[in-house]
Amino acid sequence: MAWNWQLSDWRKFSYEIDHLHHFEDDFLRCSSEALGALRHIEKDGVNLLHVDIIREEAIQTSQIEGEFLDRESVQSWLRRHFGLQTKSTNNLLKEKGISDLLIDVYENYDEPLSHELFQR
Question: What pLDDT, in 10s, does the model give residues 84-118?
Fold first, then answer.
């Protein structure tokens, strides 16, 4: 299967909305369940969940690029950011970089794209 940008008519992207409704319904149901569950978790528990989600995103995104990060170091940087204790002494710079990037995405996801944003 080709990537969209590899198709000759990629600028004329189209889709069938009827084929997507069940995906949207599943997403809304699952996200509603998750949001409901989060209301019953303490702040540190929610922060730990954020650490886990962002850590996995950092590890998997980097692996796509052929970069294999130290999981403990990524987690340590993320835990510090969310004010959680960490025992790790692994403070690797690559791991700090991806952690900072994904935290910025997490915290500023609704910020309009700008030239300055890409220079961060």
Answer: 998 877 778 999 999 999 999 999 889 888 888 77
pLDDT per residue over 18-39, tens digit each? 999 999 999 999 999 988 888 8
Scan for tokens 């995103």, then name that residue. 57
90, 74 contact by CB (below 8 A): no
Residues 6+ apart with CB under 8 A from 113: none
Q: 19 phi and psi, to 5 degrees? A: -80, -10
Q: Which residue has the tokens 């052929």?
A: 66
Place of tokens 């791991």: 95
Q: Domain residues of the chain, as ranges?
A: 42-118
| Contacts of the segment 45-52: beta carbons below 8 A, 24+ positions apart | 47/82, 47/83, 47/84, 48/82, 48/84, 50/78, 50/82, 50/106, 51/75, 51/78, 51/79, 51/82, 51/84
Taking alpha carbons only, the member of 76, 35, 38 closest to residue 55 is: 76
